[in-house]
Amino acid sequence: MNGDSILQEWYDAIKSADSIDKIEEIRIAVFGKKGIMNAEFTRMKDIPDAEKGTFAKELNIHKEGLNALLVDRKLFLAMEHLQATMRAEAIDVSLYSATTEHGSLHPVMETMDRIVEYFVAMNFSVQTGPMVEDDF
């Protein structure tokens, strides 16, 4: 295969990629519809039948190698990004934290408060008194 130097450039580009976006650009340039792998597979029709077998084997080896390197580099960069994010968002558990309120209002009380707010918004006044009126 006469494109070994070109493929070596892509191997080097993958190894030196510093972001997942760059890896994705390389993947598209290599394996995309107009990528070098597709062009090489298309070029197989011009190769004599006697050489097609070895050319195809060599091309598939390069294809698998590039794909494995892309996946490994992408995984490495993703892990590196995750570790950097975790370091940036680390929480110091030894620091003092303000106490938080525990519990909440009873659903009946929440409903009553909402009803009172509704009637106050309509200019009614709220009177408090005994819950049950009796004659005593």
Instruction: Name the beta content range.
Output: under 5%
- State the helical fraction: 55-70%
Output the radius of gyration.
34 Å
Number of strand segments: 0
What is the H/E string? HHHHH
Class of secondary structure makeup: mainly alpha
Tally of DSSP helical segments: 5
| Low-confidence runs | none
Describe this structure in words.
The chain is mainly α. Helix 2 runs antiparallel to helix 4. The longest helix has 40 residues. The mean pLDDT is 86.
Write the layout of secondary structure elements.
Blueprint: H1 4-16, H2 20-31, H3 36-43, H4 49-88, H5 107-121
Helix pairs in contact: 1-4, 2-4
Question: What descriptive keywords fit this protein?
Answer:
136 residues, mainly alpha, 5 helices, 65% helix, 0% strand, elongated
In brief, what are we looking at here?
It contains five helices and no strands.
